[in-house]
Fold this protein.
Amino acid sequence: MLAPNLNLPIPMEPRALKQMARTLLDQAPVAGLPIVVAGDWIAAPLWDGWGGTLARQGMDREAFGRVVAGYGNEVRLWVVGERPWEQCVGGLAGRVARRLAPDAEEARPAHDPWRAVLSRVGVSADDEMATLVSRIGELHLLYDISAPEGRAAGAPAADPVFAIVWAGGRPRDPEVPCGEGRAESSAGALAEALGRFLLKDPAYPPR
């Protein structure tokens, strides 16, 4: 059941913002990818148009930012031209509606052990990409993300993003514990990978 009376009109495509994000990905891909998929740059103008409606339904700006961050890989695909704007923002509107549904919290798999263990390092499964990447760096861990490429414009958004987190050097030592995650967003996959790494290595981080 979707949230009642939710009317989120599709805004005009913010082409200037899209071009700025694309330039960042092209010129500084390592630093730019976490910024682009974190999504705060696109959440701000969307909130300007949707914020009043969402606030009346009980969603504040911070919660909306988390939803956008969880949708980060789809935003990236729009930036690089693999998703039309209408499909990208329409899918985001649907995700927001599902988050506002009365049974959304019940449907969410909140009791997975890897979710609970993330609190050990001060993050959560709902954190934005930039927060996760920053914390992983502080923990001196390494990570890699493989997003599905070449997906047709009409294909389902369920193709998983794969992430892996490990300690040690690069390339990854197969003898060193690692955690793997799969989700529809880069942030979701990375959070799961970090959580599963922490489950495999309960002594990490060292005291």
Observations:
- Strands lie at 142-146, 161-166, 178-183.
- The chain has two domains: 15-107, 113-200.
- The chain is about 50% helix and 10% strand.
- Residues 103-110, 150-158 have pLDDT under 50 and may be disordered.
